[in-house]
TrEMBL record:
Domain of life: Bacteria
Pfam families: FIST, FIST_C
FIST domain ranges (all copies): 33-228
Name of the protein this chain belongs to: Uncharacterized conserved protein, contains FIST_N domain
InterPro entries associated with the record: FIST_C (IPR019494), FIST_domain_N (IPR013702)
Organism name: Desulfofustis glycolicus DSM 9705
FIST C-domain domain: residues covered: 229-365
Length: 387
C-alpha cells in the first residue's frame, strides 16, 4: 500500500505554518516512515531554508523535491494560496530517488540526463514514474519536452509542471532536500509495482482554418501564413492584440502530419520586429489554429478528466491523484477555481489529491507516448501500489 500524508497551512506566521504542516503529516502517517516528499508554496518571499530544515530534520533521509507555485491544490481544501503544502509518501515496496539538474537554460542537455542517471543508479529496478518540477521562467524558450525525452527516453512516463512565482513573472525557486535553486529542476523517480492512469485535457477549442508557420525561432514567431506574426494577430484579433487578453487566445500547434495539438500562449508582441513571443517552443514546419476558451469549457474538461480517473483507474480507487493544471485556467476561473476539483473533493470515500498551478505542464498525450510540454492543460495522474 502507498501511504500518503498531506499537510497545508496558510497561517500568516511562516514558522507556525510549517509546524502545523509537519504535525498534520505526522498524524496522517500514523507511525509510517516517509521515504519521499513534495513541497509546494506560493509564499514567494518565504523562509525557504527554515521550511526545508524543519522537514528534513523531522524526517531524516527523505527524498524531498518541490518548488514555488501560483497556488497549491490539496485534498479537503482544494485551491489555496499564500500557503505551504507538503505531501509525504511511504511504502514498504516502492523505492524513491531524487536529484536536481542545474543551469537548465544553458546546460540542460547535459545536467538533466546526469540527474536522471543518478536517480536510476540508486533505484531497485526500472523506474515506473518520474515527477519533474522545472523553473517556469528560464525554460520558456527551451525545447523542454525534447530535453525531457532525451534524458528519460520513452521507457517510463514523466509528469509534472513548471515552477511559478505567484504570477509576478520575476523569479521562481526549486527545492531539493535542504537546498534552494533557480534555473533548475528537481526530479523524483519511483520504481516498483506501481499502477498508473492519467488524463491530459484542455478546454480550449480550436477555431477556423490551419495556418502555416513560415518562420519561428524557438518560442519567437516571426511569420505566420506569409505575414509578420504581429500583422497576423492584428488581422484576426483586432484590438485584443495590444492587450493582456491576447494570452486568452493561445495557439493550437500541430506537427506537420499530426492530428493532436499542444497549446502555446502568446505573451509579448514586438511591433518593430513584427514578432510574437510565446510560452514554449514550436516544432519545425508546424501548423497553427487560433483557439477560444470559456469557464464552462474549462470546468467541463476537468470534471470529465476527474471522473475518468476515478472510474477507470486499473486498480480501482486511486491511492493518490497528482494534479498539474495551468495557471491560465485558474485566472480564467477566478472565484470558480475550486469547481475544477469538485469530483475529487466530493468523492466518497474521500480521495487524496495534491498538486499546484503551473506555468507549464508536462506529461504524455497518449499512455505510452513521450512526455511533452503543454500550456493551458489540466493533467491528472492517479497512483496505486499493486498488492
Amino acid at each position: 500500500m502507498l501511504t500518503t500524508a498531506i499537510g497545508v497551512s496558510d497561517h500568516i506566521d511562516q514558522r507556525q505554518a510549517i509546524a502545523a504542516v509537519l504535525d498534520q503529516c505526522e498524524t496522517a502517517l500514523a507511525g509510517a516512515r516517509p521515504q519521499a516528499g513534495i513541497l509546494f508554496t506560493s509564499i514567494i518571499d518565504g523562509d525557504f531554508p527554515y521550511f526545508l530544515d524543519k522537514i528534513t530534520s523531522r524526517f531524516p533521509g527523505i527524498e524531498l523535491i518541490g518548488c514555488t507555485t501560483d497556488g497549491e491544490i490539496v485534498a479537503d481544501q482544494g485551491f489555496v494560496e499564500d500557503a505551504v503544502a507538503l505531501l509525504l509518501l511511504a511504502s514498504d515496496h516502492l523505492r524513491f530517488a531524487s536529484a536536481v539538474a542545474c543551469n537548465l537554460s544553458t546546460s540542460g542537455a547535459e545536467t538533466l540526463p546526469a540527474a536522471v542517471a543518478d536517480c536510476r543508479r540508486r533505484l531497485d529496478g526500472k523506474p515506473a514514474l518520474g515527477i519533474i518540477l522545472p523553473d517556469g521562467l528560464t525554460t520558456i524558450g527551451l525545447p523542454l519536452g525534447r530535453l525531457i525525452q532525451q534524458a528519460t527516453g520513452n521507457t517510463f512516463p514523466v509528469f509534472g509542471g513548471t515552477a511559478g512565482d505567484h504570477y509576478r513573472l520575476e523569479k521562481t525557486y526549486q527545492f531539493h532536500n535542504g537546498l534552494i535553486y533557480t534555473d533548475a529542476t528537481p526530479l523524483l523517480l519511483i520504481s516498483g509495482d506501481l499502477t498508473l492512469s492519467s488524463q491530459v485535457v484542455t478546454g480550449n477549442e480550436p477555431i477556423g482554418r490551419f495556418y502555416e508557420v513560415n518562420r519561428v525561432e524557438a518560442n519567437v514567431l516571426h511569420e505566420i501564413d506569409g505575414r509578420r506574426a504581429t500583422d497576423f494577430y492584428d488581422e484576426l484579433l483586432g484590438g485584443f492584440s495590444d492587450k493582456l487578453e491576447i494570452a486568452q487566445f493561445p495557439l493550437a500547434v500541430y506537427e506537420p502530419q499530426g492530428h493532436d495539438f499542444c497549446l502555446r500562449d502568446p505573451f509579448l508582441l514586438d511591433r518593430e520586429a513584427g514578432t510574437v513571443t510565446c510560452v514554449g517552443t514550436f516544432p519545425d514546419h508546424c501548423r497553427v489554429r487560433l483557439t477560444t476558451i470559456s469557464r464552462e469549457d474549462i470546468l467541463r474538461t476537468a470534471h470529465e478528466a476527474n471522473e475518468r480517473i476515478l472510474a477507470g483507474h486499473p486498480a480501482g480507487r486511486p491511492e493518490l491523484v497528482l494534479l498539474f493544471p495551468c495557471t491560465s485556467r485558474r485566472h480564467v476561473l477566478g472565484t470558480r477555481t475550486n469547481e475544477e476539483f469538485a469530483a475529487l473533493h466530493q468523492a466518497d470515500p474521500p480521495q487524496a489529491f495534491f498538486g499546484f498551478y503551473c506555468y507549464g505542464e508536462i506529461g504524455p498525450l497518449a499512455p505510452d507516448g513521450p512526455s511533452g510540454y503543454h500550456s493551458d492543460t489540466y493533467i491528472a495522474v492517479a497512483l496505486s501500489e499493486r498488492s
